[in-house]
Amino acid sequence: MxxxxxxxxxxxxxxxxxxxxxxxxxxxxxxxxxxxxTGVSAQVKQNIAAMGFSTDQxxxxxxxxxVEGDILLTDENFAEGSTGPVLRIAESEQYRTTxxxxxxxxxxxxxxxxxxxxxxxxxxxxxxxxNALNLTLKFQFVSSGGEIQVIGFNQGPSGGYIxxxxxGFPTRKGNPYSQIQMNTNAQAYGTNPDVNYLTSVxxxxxxxxxxxxxxxxxxxxxxxxxxxxxxxxxNIGAILIPGTPSAADANSWMxxxxxxxxxxxxxxxxxxxxxxx
Length: 277
Prior knowledge:
GO biological process, one term: proteolysis
Order of helices and strands: EHHEEEHEEHEEEEHHHEH
Keywords: Hydrolase, Protease, Signal
Structural class: alpha/beta
Number of domains: 1
Helix content: 25-40%
Strand order of the largest sheet: 1-9-10-8-6-7
GO molecular function, one term: metallopeptidase activity
Organism: Mucilaginibacter gilvus
Radius of gyration: 17 Å
Protein name: Protease
């Protein structure tokens, strides 16, 4: 599947405003596209809704449609039916997609190109965080040609948000999503990006690449603010991971919106990762 997870952060005219937003649960991870003038047909929105994604702020982009600010859906996704359990609506357990990385144990290579050194350091830090869990799925940093390639793009704020990064879901064949895009615009991370913040965004995007949906997909207002939204049934897969909590989990690394800080795995995230991998 192809989903682009776009970490976003609520913007205001000055840095002070951003800090205030962070206090309100904001730096947002999704919704980086304006709602108006997107040119998305009613049929496409119907397809998106049937897949269990929000039809708010849908935006036509190269290769497909950007939904929930960070997920890229393609025509192939629309044609692909679910072969897994029906989505279960709950409070805040960890959720995965139907497709996962297969052929375990396995080491997935990750490379980075045409980005400043701090992004390379953050990529290696994110890899180290996953590998420290001793999962059957491991990551290895390589100089080029990785199965997951981290690349840059430059995009300023839109509609009060700015995209921090994006990625997608595993393929039907069981390979991880092949690309993570990181925003190099100064309004995303500043002129001197904090390596720990970059690490947390990359860690999140890698989570999508191996099949994790947002922990609060059922109500993205939990981490993003705004109007509570529950997406309902899905054919793309939002499958409850056994052993994860039914109460609110404020610190999950897969919450829809960034809090502007260094968010890593909490105890429940580790349960979810160990269950799958």
